[in-house]
Design goal:
The protein has about 375 residues and is an alpha/beta fold. Helices cover about 35% and strands about 10% of the residues. The two termini are about 20 Å apart. It binds iron/sulfur cluster (SF4).
């Protein structure tokens, strides 16, 4: 099994944050306990608890058009209107059981402007573990690097897939490697000068062009100040057949990847791997053998539409459809018959949505 990704600050910091949320919102502990109980018995499973993880989009737009991203297939670089700060607060307030928030679109959150930082500050004021993902192209603008540092994210993931200029710029179309490296220097320098612990993680997505450069990616990431690195070893196709050809899952060497993680661990560097392809067997009666998204988490588009997870992300590709008579609030959707059916499809392994099949072994 591949080494899992480690949260920034380590598992201890992650658990400490969770305890703070339990104290701030006791319902979150009751709810999480109910969740653990429900998933332990698949034969009697029913959902009477709230989702405890959200990926919530502040916006649905991007300034790049990366090879492996669904945005590259859109006609424009914006799918829907931005989420308002008022709606954001309502979503957070509606769910006192929320433990984790990934404040990140299928796109670039820094395009959302200052409301993006206000959203993080609001979530963090309630002790919710909060992360985001950025391509770092806009850190220099609008003092974003300072605002990011002061907004108190638990984890800031920065996407760089190669330190070779032509490879990087071929993958991350519209970006310049030299600008991104300068921005990271700006951000890390500001953290150091302000005595703020560095909360960044570098993520690289492996596709055909960069799949052989994992050693170099890790070394260069360490050189520029990252101590936590995640490598996504299979570019999920976002439910789009057109992106299938970029997935290098079958040519990866898990033993070598784990060897690298062990090696860097002895130097105090956390390296972990993300994979989705063939991840679940679905053959036993355990829910641990199935995708956890339908049972614990929701992806909420900036227009309050509901793709199944961050690996699909675009509701125009697939969404858990609820009738227009049902409120589009996350909890109304979570407790809807349609979401219940989506869970049953994962439990029974019958009629799985097409987008979910690549995640399961022998279900394509
Ligand atoms: S099984 Fe479906 S919901 Fe789960 S990660 Fe895969 S595409 Fe997303």
């Amino acid at each position: 099994m591949l080494r899992a990704v480690i949260p920034v600050g380590g598992h201890e910091a992650y658990q400490q944050q969770r305890q703070k949320r339990f104290t701030y919102s006791p319902e979150s502990l009751i709810n999480y306990t109910a969740y653990i109980n429900r998933i332990s018995d698949i034969t009697n499973y029913h959902c009477d608890y709230k989702p405890w993880k959200y990926q919530l989009e502040p916006n649905s737009s991007c300034n790049l058009s990366c090879q492996m991203c669904a945005v590259s297939t859109w006609d424009s670089q914006q799918r829907a209107a931005d989420l308002s700060l008022t709606s954001f607060r309502q979503i957070i307030d509606e769910n006192p059981a929320l433990l984790e928030l990934n404040l990140c679109p299928l796109g670039e959150p820094l395009l959302r402007g200052d409301d993006f930082f206000a959203m993080c500050t609001y979530a963090r004021s309630k002790e919710i573990w909060t992360r985001t993902v950025t391509n770092a192209t806009l850190l220099h603008a609008n003092d974003n690097y300072k605002k990011l540092a002061f907004s108190n994210f638990n984890e800031v993931v920065i996407s760089i897939d190669s330190f070779n200029k032509s490879t990087y710029e071929s993958i991350r179309r519209g970006s310049k490697l030299s600008n991104v490296l300068r921005n990271i220097e700006l951000l890390h320098g500001f953290y150091r000068n302000s005595d703020i612990p560095i909360n960044t993680k570098l993520n690289a997505v492996l596709i055909t062009e960069n799949k052989d450069s994992v050693d170099n990616i890790i070394q260069r990431a360490v050189d520029i100040g990252f101590s936590n690195i995640s490598i996504t070893i299979d570019a999920f196709n976002w439910g789009l057949d057109a992106l299938d050809g970029l997935n290098v899952y079958s040519s990866n060497d898990d033993l070598y990847f784990n060897h690298l993680a062990d090696l860097w661990s002895t130097r105090g560097i956390d390296v972990g791997f993300v994979t989705t392809t063939n991840k679940f067997h679905g053959s036993t009666s355990s829910l641990e053998d199935r995708c956890s998204w339908p049972f614990s988490a929701m992806y909420i588009g900036s227009d309050l539409r509901y793709p199944p997870c961050c690996h699909v992300g675009d509701p125009d590709v697939f969404e858990v459809n609820v009738p227009s008579s049902i409120s589009t609030s996350p909890l109304a959707v979570w407790f809807s018959d349609q979401y219940s059916l989506f869970r049953q499809q994962h439990i029974s392994q019958l009629d799985l949505p097409k987008v979910c099949k690549p995640c399961y072994v022998n279900n394509s």
